[in-house]
Amino acid sequence: MAVPRTSLRGFLAQAKSSLRNAIDSSQKVTLVIGNESADLDSMSCSILYAYVRSLSPPKNAFTPLYVPITNIPAADIQLRPEYLAVFKHANIDSGHLITLDDLPPLSDIQNKLAPENTRWILVDHNALQGQLGKIYSSRVAGVIDHHDDEGKVPEDTSNEPRIIEKSGSCTSLIANYCRPKWETSSLSALSSGAAHAQGDSLSDDVAVVKRWDAAVAQLGLASILIDTANLKDDNKTTEHDRKAVEYLEAKIMLCPQLSTSFDRTSFYTEIDAAKREIGGLKLQDILRKDYKQWDQGGLKLGISSVVKHIDFLQNKAGDETDTQSASGAFLETLKKFAKDRELDMYTLMTTSTSSKGNFQREILLLAFNDNAVSAAKAFAASSKDELGLEDWHGSNSLTDTNRGDSEWLKIWWQRQVQHSRKRVAPLLREAMT
Ligand SMILES: [Mn+2]
């Protein structure tokens, strides 16, 4: 049975209490989870899928309600100012989001949330990582993603999708997949409103459903626009993205309160500006804001993506220390970040705009032991051409170091700027095997 139509706010409250109930009284639960970087795309994928799917669950669904999980602790929401910018439009606030804090503590999760009582749908990734992966991988029942297929999700996913396709934003794949069900449900909500209501209350009912839909549509649209630079980045934008944007924008325009005022470009500009507003964060928070980690070939790799160039980050480190040079403080923060996570290899990828207005990328690679140093060197050799790696010379004393085989630091410009972490991570992992 479908969940009654409600606002996004109402839905998230209901999902949160249903998850609590599943934990407290050992009930079944279906979780929709995005990747551990928890960028805008991952967050909106899980919410959009869970919201629409719960309106119209498939026959024999494990549970009628789908619970969207954002794969970070609640405290980390504050590292993502772009979330808050989007929440305003979606008429929700941070407290509505369902995060790792709403799951039992990892040390005890197996007992409180028995694997056999769970089904997991992966969005914006296709292999459940970390402790959750160790316990619940065999319970993954479906996937929609736009990363390389790691082959972990079974080929036959029965009544849940198994869609792994190239697209700028995974939210586009979700929106296009959900579209038929969303439309059917909106139409029936609108016509049942029409059947039962009279006069003013009829148009009220209709307006309410349109407003709810428009709020959810804005949540999805924000991610697609951020991931494709408002559909202007030809290296990333695909037909899936264009189709989804057209659909979601039309849904927003159906809402009388928005139809005259909504402008896609200013909406994009507002969210993008919020995303770049990281000056108030501490360097180590900037490093964990968009972070992913993998185990490969007995080594642990971590990659941080940052929307400012290395010189900015060094200056930040300099501002945060009284006793050290900026470059010294910067390196120490990187090493501490890696050490806290017991990494063998740590990579920092930056994006920024040059003084001439060109989009640019840097890669910084640190390796901390023999095996990691060999893997790092293998990566440097095998990926040089594809990524356009070119020696980096920054503004001050940060330079490549090579302490024998036990530690290695290398910084490049990545001239083939079309390749994001989506490509760099597999290249690094390949070099680690
Ligand atoms: Mn994504």
TrEMBL record:
<dbReference type="GO" id="GO:0004309">
    <property type="term" value="F:exopolyphosphatase activity"/>
</dbReference>
<dbReference type="InterPro" id="IPR001667">
    <property type="entry name" value="DDH_dom"/>
</dbReference>
<dbReference type="GO" id="GO:0005737">
    <property type="term" value="C:cytoplasm"/>
</dbReference>
<dbReference type="InterPro" id="IPR038763">
    <property type="entry name" value="DHH_sf"/>
</dbReference>
<keyword id="KW-0378">Hydrolase</keyword>
<dbReference type="Pfam" id="PF01368">
    <property type="entry name" value="DHH"/>
</dbReference>
<dbReference type="InterPro" id="IPR004097">
    <property type="entry name" value="DHHA2"/>
</dbReference>
<keyword id="KW-0464">Manganese</keyword>
<dbReference type="Pfam" id="PF02833">
    <property type="entry name" value="DHHA2"/>
</dbReference>
<keyword id="KW-0479">Metal-binding</keyword>
<dbReference type="GO" id="GO:0046872">
    <property type="term" value="F:metal ion binding"/>
</dbReference>
<feature type="domain" description="DHHA2">
    <location>
        <begin position="268"/>
        <end position="432"/>
    </location>
</feature>
<dbReference type="InterPro" id="IPR038222">
    <property type="entry name" value="DHHA2_dom_sf"/>
</dbReference>
<protein>
    <submittedName>
        <fullName>DHH phosphoesterase</fullName>
    </submittedName>
</protein>
